[in-house]
Amino acid sequence: RRISEREFESYVEEALASVPAVFRKYLDNVVVAVEDEPTDEDYEETDTPDDEDLFGIFRGAGYFDRHEMVSSLPAQIAIFRGPILRASRSPEDLVERVTETVYHEIAHHFGISDERLHDLKRGAP
To answer: Residue 15: is it exposed, middle or buried by C-beta count within 10 angstroms (0-12/13-18/19+)?
Structure first.
């Protein structure tokens, strides 16, 4: 089954809408964009090996670091459509990957590292 760009974007919008309001209120200055593929710079920025898929990236100053930044540009979360579609085995898997990626990148906005996210997934305090 083919997924249109609009349908994919609607999954991203649903994921954003499912973020609890206590966190969502801190996303006012964050742009969420759907992009087809990550760039070489995205891979370098995230230290993602070339043979691994990159589903999303947080670009810019995190919520708690904004006071140190001079830029007036908003932070950005990019969700990469191509890698997520290629990795998804079913429509349900697709929705789960989109939601997980959106939440993952929002966590980066709040300064939570990949290592800490991994620990939290494992149930570590």
So the answer is: buried
Secondary structure, 3-state, 30-91: EEEEEECCCCHHHHHHHCCCCCCCCCEEEECCCHHHHHHCCCCCCEEEEEEHHHHHHHCCCH
Tokens read off for 125:
């305090």
Residue 20, CB-side half-sphere exposure with 13 Å CA sphere: 3
Instruction: Name the amino acid, one letter, at 87.
Output: A
Residue 103 has which token pair? 């939440």
14-43 pLDDT, tens digit each? 999 999 988 888 888 899 999 999 999 999
- β-strand partners of 78: 33, 57
DSSP 13-27: HHHHHTS-HHHHGGG
pLDDT, tens digit, 9 for 90 and up, residues 69-87: 556 678 899 999 999 999 9
